């Protein structure tokens, strides 16, 4: 077994990658889909004045609209057909996962295996269409109310413009949902995460240019720019360390005798990640904060009353209420998503069925309680880490007007998605190597 592992490690190079035709096909498919997505972010909505829209966005880019634009890959700034990005699908996924914990019917569907999962996915798609319709209508009404220095953002406002906008926005969101599912099934990595990842990466050059321009004009000092870049490197290193950190629980298997031979008696480890939920809490928290804050921003921009304008001001980036809700949602989703992906009782039962046990802990309910105890402590540290990474840069952004792409949420998404994609590529390479070794072993067996 050791020689096989050494051979795999030695052969995981470019030559192996060149022979892995299935992996190359998946990578090219994913890249093609992502290129289609990027092209779509430059196709504008009909009836929009792009110059006025650019002026309005420049006035509000530092607020919640800037954060929304980051997740949409710059599509909101250009008011393209993908202006809502993948956010309606993410919001629908959040609601369906919450319903799994609340509704017995949906919980039963989840236990039905593949058929139940398909039904839940179908419900998520329907809910995505409903949310995109609602948000598209709000976006159309908000656009009609927006006024820039050169006039209205909408060339010909009215019912026809609202209808066309809603249809276009819903079509764009559904297409992105389908594109993400295709990348997951036929490409490499998680399609939804990759779409968000590419949107952030595409905006990084302009964010760096904006930061350097602030230094050139004297708005911020060169030393502070160096500090921001060093802070970004430190945050990336911290994210990598925390994402790889895990608690390894020792699992022992008893010895058993079959005939004259003894089997078992081995020990292994059950790895529990420090941050089991990954980047999901940050994305979910951001998407939930964007919905009411965006409505407030649109209403405030059009002068539609003091309530929405006040909500927009209170929920602005860097404001205490925004930070409080952000931290609360991150902590909530960290614990909630961890409970979804890891069931202590189910894991303890599976361990007992296979004869495994944790030294010093009784099998069954005591083992489940132990898993729950360890997982709660790990999730507490993981939630604190996520909140710190996402919130501390937000304070820096609000105080010193640093471009928001250097925020902790964007860095967390970029680093986590990169690590996950690289891990999946390595898994495909290892599987390809094992297939090659098995074929060679069969050929040698036939020759012998």
Please describe the structure with a list of short key phrases separated by commas or semicolons.
Preprotein translocase SecY subunit; 6% strand; 6 strands; mainly alpha; two-stranded antiparallel ribbon; 448 residues; globular
Largest sheet: 2 strands, antiparallel
Distance between the termini: 21 Å
At the fold tier of CATH, the topology name is Preprotein translocase SecY subunit
Rg from alpha-carbon coordinates: 25 Å
Helix content: over 70%
What is the strand and helix layout of this fold?
Blueprint: H1 2-11, H2 14-19, H3 21-40, H4 50-60, H5 64-71, H6 75-78, H7 87-102, H8 104-111, H9 114-145, E1 147-148, E2 151-152, H10 159-186, H11 191-216, H12 222-244, E3 246-252, E4 255-258, E5 261-264, E6 267-273, H13 280-301, H14 306-314, H15 320-341, H16 344-353, H17 365-400, H18 408-447
Antiparallel strand pairs: 1-2, 3-6, 4-5
Q: What does this protein structure show overall?
A:
The protein is mainly alpha-helical. The chain has one domain: Preprotein translocase SecY subunit (Orthogonal Bundle), CATH 1.10.3370.10. It is built from 18 helices and 6 strands. The protein has helices at residues 2-11, 14-19, 21-40, 50-60, 64-71, 75-78, 87-102, 104-111, 114-145, 159-186, 191-216, 222-244, 280-301, 306-314, 320-341, 344-353, 365-400, 408-447, and strands spanning 147-148, 151-152, 246-252, 255-258, 261-264, 267-273. The strands form 3 sheets. A two-stranded antiparallel ribbon has the order 1-2. A two-stranded antiparallel sheet has the order 3-6. A two-stranded antiparallel ribbon has the order 4-5. Strand 4 and strand 5 form a beta hairpin. Helix 16 crosses helix 17. It starts with a helix and ends with a helix.
């Amino acid at each position: 077994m050791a020689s096989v592992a050494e051979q795999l490690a030695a052969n995981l190079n470019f030559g192996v990658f060149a022979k892995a035709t299935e992996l190359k096909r998946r990578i090219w498919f994913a890249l093609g889909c992502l290129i289609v997505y990027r092209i779509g972010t430059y196709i504008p909505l009909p009836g929009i004045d792009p110059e006025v829209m650019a002026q309005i966005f420049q006035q509000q880019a530092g607020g919640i609209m800037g954060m929304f634009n980051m997740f949409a890959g710059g599509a909101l700034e250009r008011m393209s057909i993908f202006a809502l990005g993948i956010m309606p699908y993410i919001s629908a996924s959040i609601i369906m996962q919450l319903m799994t914990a609340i509704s017995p019917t949906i919980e039963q569907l989840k236990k039905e295996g593949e058929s139940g999962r398909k039904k839940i996915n179908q419900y998520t798609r329907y809910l995505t269409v409903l949310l995109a319709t609602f948000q598209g209508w709000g976006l159309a009404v908000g656009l009609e109310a927006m006024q820039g220095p050169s006039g209205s953002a909408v060339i010909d406002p009215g019912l026809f413009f609202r209808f066309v906008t809603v249809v276009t926005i819903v079509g764009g969101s559904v297409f992105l949902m389908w594109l993400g599912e295709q990348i997951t099934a036929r490409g490499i990595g998680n399609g939804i995460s990759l779409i968000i990842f590419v949107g952030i990466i595409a905006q990084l050059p302009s964010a760096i240019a904006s930061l350097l321009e602030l230094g050139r004009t004297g708005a911020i000092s060169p030393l502070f720019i160096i500090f921001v870049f060093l802070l970004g490197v430190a945050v990336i290193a911290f994210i990598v360390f925390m994402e790889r950190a895990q608690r390894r629980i020792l699992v022992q298997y008893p010895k058993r005798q079959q005939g004259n031979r003894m089997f078992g008696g081995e020990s292994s480890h059950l790895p529990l990640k420090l941050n089991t939920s990954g980047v999901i809490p940050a994305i979910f928290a951001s998407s939930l904060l964007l919905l009411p804050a965006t409505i407030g921003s649109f209403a405030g921009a059009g002068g539609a009353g003091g309530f929405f304008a006040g909500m927009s001001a209170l929920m602005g980036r860097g404001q205490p209420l925004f930070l409080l809700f952000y931290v609360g949602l991150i902590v909530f989703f960290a614990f909630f998503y961890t409970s979804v992906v890891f069931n202590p009782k189910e894991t303890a039962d599976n361990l007992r069925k296979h004869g495994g046990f944790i030294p010093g802990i009784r099998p069954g309910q005591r083992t489940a309680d132990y898993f729950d105890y360890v997982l709660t402590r790990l999730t507490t540290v993981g939630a604190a880490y996520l909140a710190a990474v996402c919130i501390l840069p937000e304070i820096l952004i609000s105080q010193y007007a640093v471009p928001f792409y250097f925020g902790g949420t964007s860095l967390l998404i970029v680093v986590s998605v990169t690590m996950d994609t690289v891990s999946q590529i390595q898994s495909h390479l290892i599987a390809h190597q094992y297939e090659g070794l098995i074929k060679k072993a069969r050929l040698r067996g036939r020759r012998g």
